[in-house]
Design brief:
The protein is of the alpha+beta class. It folds into two domains: 249 residues, Zn peptidases (Aminopeptidase, 3-Layer(aba) Sandwich), CATH 3.40.630.10; 109 residues, Alpha-Beta Plaits (2-Layer Sandwich). 26% of the residues lie in helices and 25% in strands. The strands form six sheets. The protein has a six-stranded mixed sheet, with helices on one face. A hairpin with a 2-residue loop joins strand 4 and strand 5. Helix 1 crosses helix 3, helix 3 crosses helix 9 and helix 7 crosses helix 9. The two termini are 25 Å apart.
Length: 364
């Protein structure tokens, strides 16, 4: 197969989380001469496959075979590839079977390498992500197979292929505030404690406020209110409790303690509770590391574009890899239709992504 044929093969496998659609077994058989570790946890399928060519560094490509449900609004069957005007349409075309096809084919076409090449693959990235990459990493630690550097082939480019790579990601902290009041009749507000009125007095000082100034890698961490609810949907009863939910995509300058202090500053005289949960921690890979410099050069050689180094966007499985001491970056096709109906990417981008990964392997 060539990279486009491989891409189509992967797209036509229905692999909605946590199913792999048979993709991992196919990949294991496709990469002849590689040692495969099947690491399945409950209904999640995981594969780590590697080959030692020499004594040099261990370079890993990581990604997920699972996709989000197709949903409505498609012009065609989301699991039957449609080619139109140079684009390929199917669920997972950008996120992230384009990246999978590119690095699988790049590795398959490698004959020599001064080190170890590997693939870390899971069917649990779009879901809870509790039995996927994290479980594989536990096994790699036990077997002393942890890579030196890793590329996660998520879609990262913005306007033109090659214009952006991720050298880090923000963390994600979710919060729930419950403000306790005293329910009462709307006609007698003096006999009640209306939590809506209390919160309204401070909300403008919190909602959308930056908790830090960011830095060269990270945008400011912002307090984003995502939900407020109270009352019984009637007009003559004031509520006894209000619940407010929020999210902070945090840089390395903001943590759970600083968010807790921020909330207490404005709620200190109120009867309230606060729950915080951190689902991802911020990380950044230094631009002077071997993997960043090598990928920069490969992208520029293939595309003629110098990529910017970004930490924008949501989370990926890179958040699990970086804390293991692995230099991790992300690079893939343009990100503009992920999780949407009629998801698509161009054949040209997939071909160029393959060429970037081949150049990286050849020069790493």
């Amino acid at each position: 197969m060539n990279v486009i044929e491989l891409f189509i093969n992967l797209l036509e496998r229905k692999s909605e989380t946590p199913s792999d659609g048979g993709a991992l077994r196919f990949i294991s058989e496709y990469l002849e001469g590689y040692t495969a570790l099947v690491i399945n946890k409950q209904e999640v399928q995981n594969l780590f496959i590697y080959k030692k060519f020499g004594e040099g560094e261990h370079l890993c490509f990581a990604g997920h075979v699972d996709v989000v449900p197709a949903g409505d609004g498609w012009y065609s069957d989301p699991y039957k590839v449609v080619e139109k005007e140079g684009y390929i349409y199917a669920r997972g075309a950008q996120d992230m079977k384009s990246g999978l096809a590119a690095f699988i084919q790049a590795v398959a076409d490698t004959k020599t390498f001064n080190g170890t090449l590997s693939l870390l693959l899971t069917s649990d990235e779009e879901g809870p992500a509790k039995n996927g990459t994290v479980k594989v990493l536990e096994v790699l630690k036990e077997k002393n197979l942890m890579p030196d550097a890793c590329i996660v082939a998520e879609p990262t480019c913005e306007k033109v292929f090659g214009d952006a790579m991720k050298v880090g990601r923000r963390g994600s902290i979710n919060g729930v505030i419950e403000k306790i009041g005293k329910q009462g009749h709307a006609a007698y507000p003096e006999k009640a404690i209306n939590p809506i009125h209390k919160v309204a007095q401070v909300l403008h000082k919190m909602a959308g406020v930056n908790l830090d100034n960011g830095d060269e890698y990270f945008s400011p961490s912002q307090f984003v209110v995502t939900d407020i609810r109270a009352g019984m949907e009637v007009t003559n009863v004031t509520p006894g409790k209000l619940k407010m939910m929020f999210n902070v995509r945090n840089s390395t300058k903001t943590d759970k303690k600083s968010i807790e202090d921020f909330v207490h500053k404005y709620f200190k005289e109120m009867n309230f509770s606060l729950k915080l949960d951190q689902s991802a921690y911020p990380f950044v890979t230094d631009s002077n590391t071997h993997i960043v410099r090598s990928l920069d050069k490969a992208i520029e050689k293939v595309t003629g574009v110098i990529p910017k180094h970004s930490t924008a966007g949501g989370t990926s499985d890179a958040r699990f890899i970086a804390p293991c001491g692995v230099d991790v970056v992300e690079f893939g096709v343009i990100n503009d239709t992920i999780h949407a109906p009629n998801e698509r990417t161009s054949k040209e981008e997939v071909q160029k992504l393959y060429e970037v990964f081949r150049e990286l392997i050849d020069t790493f």
